Amino acid sequence: MNYSGKVLVVDDSKLINSYISEILIKNNFLPISAYSGSEALQLLAEGMPDLILLDIVLPDITGFEVYAEIHKDASVKDIPVIFLTGISDAENIKKGLELGAIDYIPKPFKDIELTLKIVNHFKTINANKQIKEREKKLEEYSRELEELNSTKNKFFSIIAHDLKNPLHLLMGLSNELMDNIQNLDIETVKEVVKGINSTSKQTFNLLENLLEWARMQTGNLQAKPERISCKAIIAEIKSLFDDAAKKKNIELIFENDTDAYIYADAAMMKTVLRNLVSNAIKFTSCNGEVSVNIQEHSDVCDIIVADNGIGIDPAHVEKIFRIDSKLSKIGTANEEGTGLGLLLCKEFVEKNNGAISVESQRGKGSRFIISMPLMD
User: Fold this and answer.
1) Which one, 29, 163, 306, 310, has the greatest CB density within 10 A?
2) Which own/partner contact pairs does 61-64 have at CB distance under 8 Å and 24+ positions apart?
3) pLDDT at position 321 over 70
4) Which homologous superfamily is 5-109 in?
5) Residues of the chain with CATH 3.30.565.10
């Protein structure tokens, strides 16, 4: 049976308790009976009623003392209380209302009087519940809007600053080449072209991340998991960064003899590894070391991208996967970054039922651990 509400009736008189319970049942309310203050408090610990009818005079402690105990407990202090009291007990009525009771019912009372008071108070209780639910939803909507606004601001910041800067650099380098091509020696031309090539690659990688992240936010990018070889995708990613590593004389290591198979979207995992290896090279000084290794566990495969670079400030470690944190830094060779790549890594890994974590020490380097479901 679906009751309109649950009412705790606290009265030491079995006759009155039973009488109130019958009236409640007739009006589709579920009564719970307590015959002492201590029993009432015990019942409250076991389950929350919607309303409490509380006699002031009880055999062990007074109704006021019960009320005081209720208000010490944050989980039940908001349950409305109606005191039951003698008809001429003006002082107790005043005290009960001053304590915070929503009403009182004088004894003796008629069926209709009790029924009307309870029904009317339940209307108020239900209205208050609806208001609280709406307030909660409004708070959730407000948080979502704040997050969306933060996301939008970050997005425009990337476009306005991080994308515009390399484009300006490309324009400057190409203009220099066009305006002075006749006067430049071959070595200078090579340096300018090298700058154009490097900036173009950085801009392309940024655009790739922006587009993939935008598709993720709009729900247009769905994971298509399959059985993929960790060794194969790591080898593919390593080949993309061999030249970048050589430019800084960084040793790029992948020495796993064994392979492991995971269940994930291959394109997403390549994007994750591309961003992590790119960051590792970016924040590792010349003559440093970047490694990618596989570790198998019972049902999980860890792919670990490690470096001996500059490391991450401990205060920033918890923030690096959040879009609202402006933690982008310049690399050891003045490479620029947005922080968007790590956000994308987290979203892609989690979309494939995996997890990503980081261990880092300032001045000693970082280890990014991707944990993915292992397949046979």
Assistant:
1) 29
2) 61/36, 61/37, 62/37, 63/10, 63/37, 63/96, 64/95, 64/96, 64/99
3) yes
4) Response regulator (3.40.50.2300)
5) 224-376
Question: Which pLDDT does position 239 carry in this prediction?
Answer: 85
- Tracing tokens 């409640």 back to the chain, one arrives at 24
Task: Domain 224-376: give its CATH superfamily.
Answer: Histidine kinase-like ATPase, C-terminal domain (3.30.565.10)
Residue the block writes with tokens 């020696």: 185
Q: How far apart are CA 350 and CA 342, in angstroms?
A: 12
Q: In angstroms, rounded to a whole number, what is the distance separating the alpha carbons of residues 376 and 374?
A: 7
Domain with CATH 3.40.50.2300 in the chain: 5-109
- Condensed to tens digits (0 to 9), the pLDDT of residues 104-138 reads 888 888 889 888 888 888 888 888 888 989 999 99
DSSP letters, 207-259, are: HHHHHHHHHHHTT------EEEEHHHHHHHHHHHHHHHHHHTT-EEE----S-
